[in-house]
Design goal:
By secondary structure, the chain is an alpha+beta fold. The protein is about 20% helix and about 35% strand. It is elongated, with a radius of gyration of 44 Å.
């Protein structure tokens, strides 16, 4: 016996190795584009025949797997003939009844069983999943247990490489224990299922079918699973159990579990009509001793009823409908505390907003202190809803005074059908930056003269909050031909160029009236936050200087000078020419103005070139090796003179820095990006446009990390530990 067992184990090992070769061969038949789910049932024939209810329970399991709404198919493999698999098949196949009959005949046939063929059957299941290109999440159900002569310790060792191979594809092994109390087989099933993320389920009685069915339905369900009835019947039928089906449902599946094998279920639609067991179009039924599965196509909306005929013992009725509608919450999170917020939700069908009639929507909001408040959302153009009948439901929430996490449960209810769907969400509330504008002198401004018209400040939870000046957006409406100019002057700049308080200096260009509108627009809490301010009206007065009188200048007449008589040159007389006195030369104001206009820019340029900040700082590698000393960097004389405060990354000879420019200013250093270049990260943030660097800033590119330092790191003294 020992020798036969060793030979059998050796055959199983060879089968596993051949399976590996087939899976790794270029000629493997796997269809990598397949997305349809596939489940394989591996049955130990000897165990099924020895258990009292194993055969009908196995058929019930096949019915459950074959009616999944995600389109999954099933393959049946038994240990009597692992190479003679049945399938793939689904309950919707026209020959499903004959397939069930074939499986039933296989389970009831005489066994040609050998002790180690469970390994070959498991490897055949793996090969089947590979051949059909089964996606991750497909499962292998292994059913065994009872009085077999398995050497489980040796089996566990033999199948371990095969189980690991199954797990690498994302497939799971799930054990089905056919005999209650059989610890040896349960331990073996746990050993082969646990590495794949599966589990072990009992399948020894009708009571075990319901929890197993709940797992299968819930694992593959794309919609919702709901229990409609759970009772114990004793000498009395179940005459009415309401099953609501919502409008627009294209398909629903009902599961009827019963403890005893006898009796049957009947289904009545909302019109009072008895639904036939199967008509091939609107209904389909799969029945076994302990389970009946009804699949309804385009069912009538309303309340259906289920009735029992000669059924005793425990029963339960469950339904699974592929929800046609998703309930979506569109409100941005986090929400600002201390001000009203709009709650917005809608129903989506196939990813698009569904506009439905006869639907009411509600929201239950639970605050961090566990208090719950209910609100109704509307799609009638009121209470925060912008447009009636567009499918978006809204309500304006009162200011939230408490920061923290809020739980939101949305409910959509269909009037007249007593049916609803729900969805759960979480929203966060936190303090947001507050924008304050205090006005100063806004009347009687003088054109061309800068006036402080007020102060802009930003606070967060009562304290200052610094922002970049570009975060303040300004709108200006004017009655003048040319609008004035507004300058924001920070009270105090921080190291990154931000400030929390600004003076508003406004210079009108002409007399008249102008209106300023401010808004704060920043990225905060992972979202774009915009807060407008009230408008500021500005008036400008005309100049009251007295008009300048223009008086003609008096011209003093002078006697004409005597002209000496010309010498007679000929007999023709020559008329004398009176020469007026030379006028007094005027001061050359135009020349002076031209010279000043030329000299001032030149002088400003000279001052700028002489006062430009010099490059400073160092770049070190991860191993503290100095790569760049900006102050002593060898550069072309032209670049050194004209672009003293700008250093291109290409001048540093560091791979990945080619598309960077370092801009040295008096109070900061900016790194800007231009052109095509490798990805650069500054302090673990991708460099999109520009970033400010300072002492100990990290710069990463092409898999290497560099550090910018204002000064070289201290050198440890010799001999230091």
């Amino acid at each position: 016996m020992r020798r036969a067992r060793l030979v059998s184990i050796g055959s199983a090992v060879i089968a596993v190795l051949l399976g590996w070769l087939a899976a790794s061969s270029p000629a493997a038949f796997a269809d990598t584009d397949s997305t349809q789910g596939l489940d394989v049932i591996v049955v130990d024939s000897s165990s099924v025949r020895e258990a009292e209810q194993a055969i009908p329970l196995t058929l019930s399991l096949i019915g459950l797997l074959a009616t999944q709404q995600d389109g999954s198919k099933v393959v049946f493999i038994d240990t009597d003939g692992p190479g003679e698999a049945i399938g793939p098949f689904a309950a919707s196949d026209s020959d499903f009844a004959s397939i069930r009959s074939e499986i039933l005949a296989r389970l009831g046939a005489d066994s040609s069983y050998e002790p180690q063929s469970i390994v070959e059957a498991l490897d055949e299941a793996r090969s089947t999943l590979s051949t059909y290109g089964a996606p991750a999440g497909s499962s292998i159900y292994v059913a065994l247990g009872g009085g077999n002569d398995f050497a489980f310790d040796e089996l566990s060792y033999t199948v371990a490489p095969l189980v690991n191979r199954i797990a690498t594809h994302g497939w799971t092994v799930k054990g089905l224990s056919l005999h209650a109390g059989d610890q040896r087989s349960a331990q073996f099933l746990d050993a082969i299922s646990r590495p794949t993320g599966g589990g072990v389920f009992s399948l020894s009685s009708g009571d075990d079918l319901k929890p197993l069915g709940d797992h299968i339905i819930g694992f593959g369900a794309a919609g919702s699973v709901e229990e409609f009835a759970s009772k114990t019947l004793v000498d009395a039928p179940l005459t009415s159990s309401r099953i609501p089906i919502m409008p627009g449902t294209e398909e629903t599946t009902l599961y009827f579990y019963k403890e005893s094998p006898g009796g049957s279920f009947q289904l009545v639609n909302p019109l009072g009509e008895l639904v036939p067991n199967v008509d091939g179009v609107t209904s389909q039924v799969v029945e076994s001793d302990n389970l009946a599965i009804w699949r309804l196509v385009n069912p009538v909306a309303g309340n259906w009823k289920v009735e029992t005929v000669e059924v005793e013992g425990r029963i339960s009725v469950w339904g699974h409908a592929a929800d046609q509608y998703d309930l979506i919450l569109r409100t941005l999170s986090p929400m600002p505390t201390g001000e009203p917020n709009t709650l917005l939700a809608y129903l989506a069908q196939d990813g698009r907003t569904a506009v439905l009639k006869g639907v009411r929507m509600f929201a239950n909001i639970t605050s961090p202190d566990s208090s719950t408040t209910s609100y109704e959302l509307f799609d009638n153009g009121t209470r925060g809803d912008s447009k009636a009948g567009d499918g978006y439901y809204s309500v304006i929430l009162p200011p939230l005074d408490m920061a923290g996490s809020y739980a939101v449960t949305l409910n959509a209810r269909w009037l007249g059908f007593n049916y609803e769907i729900a969805s759960n969400h979480a929203l966060e509330a936190r303090p947001f930056p507050a924008f304050h504008v205090e006005t100063g002198q806004v009347r009687d401004l003088v054109p061309g003269e800068a006036t402080n018209i007020g102060t802009v400040s930003v606070h967060l939870d009562g304290g200052p909050y610094s922002i970049d000046p570009s975060d303040i957006e300004i709108g200006l409406a004017t009655s003048t031909e040319k609008s004035g100019m507004l300058e924001l002057v920070p009270h105090r700049l921080y190291g990154d160029g931000s400030a929390w308080q600004f003076d508003m200096l406004f210079t009108p260009s002409d007399f008249g009236s102008e209106t300023l509108q401010f808004s704060l627009s920043i990225e905060y809490g992972g979202r774009t936050f915009t807060e407008p301010s009230s408008s500021i009206a500005i008036s400008t007065v005309a100049s009251e200087s007295p008009p300048v009188s223009i008086v003609p200048a008096a011209v003093e007449s002078q006697p004409a000078p005597a002209v000496p008589a010309p010498a007679a040159a000929s007999n023709v007389p020559v008329a004398g020419v009176a020469v007026p006195p030379a006028p007094q030369a005027a001061f050359p104001w135009l020349v002076v103005a031209i010279l000043v206009a030329v000299a001032v820019p030149i002088a400003a340029g000279v001052v700028y070139f002489l006062t430009r900040p010099k490059p400073y700082g160092y770049i070190y590698t991860e191993s503290d090796d100095e790569l760049v000393d900006f102050s002593n960097l060898e550069r072309h004389p032209i670049f050194r003179f004209f672009y003293r405060g700008l250093i291109r990354g290409s001048e540093l000879n560091i791979p990945g820095f080619e598309g960077l420019v370092f801009h040295f200013m008096k109070d900061r250093i900016d790194v800007k990006s231009f052109g095509e270049h490798s990805t650069v990260r500054v302090n673990n943030q991708p460099l999109i446009d520009s970033a400010t660097i300072s002492d100990k800033t990290w710069i990463g590119t092409e898999g290497k990390l560099y550090t910018f330092l204002n000064s070289p790191p201290p050198v440890e003294p010799a001999g230091a530990d």
